[in-house]
Design a protein that fits this description.
The complex is a heterodimer of chains A (871) and B (109).
Chain A lengths: L2 H9 L1 H25 L4 H12 L2 H8 L6 H19 L1 H30 L10 E8 L12 H10 L3 E15 L4 E9 L3 H5 L5 E2 L16 E4 L1 H8 L9 E4 L2 E8 L11 E6 L15 E6 L5 H18 L1 H4 L2 E7 H41 L1 H9 L4 H37 L2 H4 L8 H27 L3 H10 L6 H34 L9 E7 L7 H11 L4 E7 L10 E6 L12 E7 L3 H5 L3 E4 L14 E5 H8 L8 E4 L8 E7 L14 E5 L7 E8 L7 H11 L6 E5 H8 L1 H35 L1 H9 L4 H30 L15 H27 L3 H7 L1
Parallel strand pairs in A: 3-8, 5-7, 14-19, 16-18
Antiparallel strand pairs in A: 1-9, 1-10, 2-3, 2-6, 2-9, 4-7, 5-8, 6-7, 11-20, 11-21, 12-20, 13-14, 13-17, 15-18, 16-19, 17-18
Helix pairs in contact in A: 2-3, 5-14, 6-12, 6-14, 6-16, 6-24, 7-10, 12-16, 12-18, 12-24, 13-17, 14-16, 18-24, 18-26, 18-27, 19-22, 24-27, 25-28, 26-27
Chain B lengths: L3 H18 L5 H11 L8 H14 L2 E7 L5 E7 L1 H27 L1
Helix pairs in contact in B: 1-2, 1-4
Classes of the chains: A alpha+beta (871), B alpha+beta (109).
Amino acid sequence: MSWFSRLTNALYARPLDHGLDEEIRDHIERRAADLRAAGLSAADAARQARTAFGNVTQLREQSRDIRLWSALESTIQDLRYAWRGLRGSPVFTLTAVASLALGIGAAVAIFTAADTLLFRPLPYREPERLVMVWETDLTRPEAARSLVSTDNVLDWQARTDAFEDVAVFWDGRSTLHDGDQADELHIRGVTANFFTMIGVQAVRGRTFGGPPSRTSKEAAPEVVISDRLWQAWYDRDPGVVGRTVHLDARPQTIIGVMPAGFSFGDREVDLWLPTTIARSGSARQGRDSHAVARLRAGASLAQAQTQMTTVARALEQLDPAFNHNWTVTLEPLRDAFVHNVKASLLILLGAVGLLLLVACANVANLLVARQSSRSSEMAIRAALGGGRWRLVRQRAIEGLLVAGLAGVAGLLLGRLALDALVAMAPQALTRPAEIAIDWRIVLFTAALAAASSLLFGLMPSMAADRGDLTAALRRAVRGGSEPTDRRRAWLISSEVALAVILLAGAALLGRSFVRLQAVDTGLQPGHVLTFHFRVPSPAEVGLFAQAIARIEALPGVRSVSAANLTPFDASGGETPVLIGARAPALAGAAPMARVRTITPRYFETLGIPVVQGRDFSAADNTRGAPLRFVVNRAFVRAYLGRDDPLATTISPSLARSNPFGEVIGVVGDVKDASRDGRVVPTVYSVYARLPYGQMTLAVRTEQEPMAIAAAVRQTIHDLDPRLPVAELRTMDEIVGQMSARERFSTTLMGGLALSAVLLAAIGVYGVLAYAVSQRTREIAVRLAIGAQPRRIVAMVLGDCARLVVPGLIAGVAGALAGSRALAPLLFDTDAHDPLALAIAPAVLLAVAIAAAGIPAWRAARLDPTRALRLG
Amino acid sequence: MATPKSAKTALDLLVLTVLSRRGGLHGYAIASAIQDLSAEALKVEEGSLYPALHRMEEAGWIAATSVVTENKRRARVYELTRAGTKQLAAETERWSVLTSGVARVLRHA
């Protein structure tokens, strides 16, 4: 049509429309008259005539195809048509939308977590120039990322220009008290340059200013609080700045409030106070601080690392006693924040990608099936004048609609999944940043849905293009095989293969997790309640003994003990130990042990066996008693050899003077160092000789430990209302948290694999059910001429095997190739564990056979006479 | 092979044929004629019929005249033009080539 007539049509739309209206009305009236003549009532005839014609508006719009805006108009109309079509086949629609929504939902949840933790730029000034600085003990692989000595930090600053600035911080807990309320908070001491270096300002007041003081040992009594604390304690009172609070009974002034959501690797910190790194004296101090540095502009990480390695070597020579075998490692900030969840997240990211592929294949499969079942209808519509482009577009729009619905459902599902994911995530995952869906994820979902819609809308259309008159006629005559069969077999094979890969991964993680759970921790965690509190001032340490006595008196309590570190809390450093009757070892090569301070009955309370000698007695736990120690078996193995431990005296370096004390007992090992089963040589010291201001109390109970939680809280409150009870939980929970990351990865991987298997089962079922329905006549003939139903079942199952076996083989190959990636997550399990790799295809095969069972059974029960008459 | 283009002209062919046998028909009559002549095997989609009529009118194969019906309504009556007659001959030729092709496929495939 010429542009001129298009234009006139567009401009003079009304007269032509009018003519068409008349024409249509005429058409309907004539049909109605015919129907009346055939004996229908006037009303029925009119209604039927209108219905037969279809939507009058629709026709008008189709006739306007020749107009300028036809594309838009007919798209809307296609949308309506597709909507009606989907509503007309709810099983198809539900299955397709649910499959895709499942995939999208899982993807949204995992991608949100991964995006937040791995990809989003960190909210600091030029975050790519920020690095964490660790000290590394070359002789101990587990000490590759150790805290740093502030004395060494001062030397780095003097000897290198790789850093523009270095800030130091340490983490702790303190009791905050403002006259009305008391609470134990996570606090962080930071050098004054910390906030300016990372480039974050307070929203109210100010942060600590000026360069780090190198002369004063005492920092100003100022604190900066978090937005959360500001909200919880002060209800966002703008006058909070300048107020005085008591931190562990010391008065401090609030000078600033940090912005909402601010964190630096640990979201739980609610209060910052200034710290200084002045030279401590002649001897270097222990490694107890974090160091973060800003690289000089233009300096690369590698350059800075090279410089720091050189500096570390120089410091090793300067102070061999302290720095022998120690070097320095720089780590990009993000890696430092997420290093222990990065591997899990990347694996889950891959897994969810695979699940999404399975879901896409499933929907494509359903659409192909749906469209091949409508191919005769399509061919006849095409023969009677349906535009080719129009028919293709209609299918594309149907795909788009499915994907759009799935996108919305998936987003909602993703929100729920994300909440669940965050709720069950290990702290390491939720600590670095708040994980929440934002507009980028919504966009991502939309893009995902659009991409899949194009894929699904157009791929079956390619098939439909061939669904021309000839082929349709031929099929109608012969009932031959579908041109789409091979395509669907491919889709199913891929689905099965992907599901096998996911399931093999889940099986590996599950096996590893079971092995991890089977590891004996060395104590009996059942029926133990733990919590900690700190006394307001060092003079009041007697409160611990009183607390123990009062709790012991509670009904249902068997024994109570206190320790400076909760079992499995490996935060305590190791200290050199001198062993009596032996020449002092070379500096830097002295035996190292972790020292835990405990009160009597600790071993009994936690169920740690005393294998030799005895526990501390109440008499040992007095200041005047002779110095005595209990050691664990690892200590004996590592340092005492065949000597009789009970005849040995040792001197752990604890205070300024460290007299030797006798070893009075040997206890079993507690695997609290790491899950690989290494046990740190440990020395237990009695509380009276080494008091701490904060202790963890362990209570062994007769019944469910949480049942006495309220009574314990009340007891401590009655003792002194200034004592906040913190981290009240069971030992079982603490042990569970040790493997939280593994549990998380395993559960999630299991969920993804299960979904994939389910989708594959749906796919297999769909294809076979369709194949059986297509072969109804053939099967009926076979049954009629005497085939055993058993043979028919075997035939369908054979089809099933042909469908899934290539997928199983491909899946096992893929699992073999991909399981390497899981290796860092596996505990005591080979990445090519034969059992896990065998289980996955076996399960898939079983599920496929079960899915094939329904159509097979239906085929075998076919009533030949009925089927043939209908066919 | 039958491409969608020729499939689309199947309707054109049917309309042109009907008009060549009995000229001066309105839309409903054309649809009914196709249905009757095919012994109800082919049901014309009205949604395609009118666009096809207008398209062929544009192409000059058929001509329409407005008449006033017995119940005082304007209707359009279609007739074959000279160009339409030529087109019909060409389409018929194409169609018989196509159908004999199809028939061969059906016999031998």
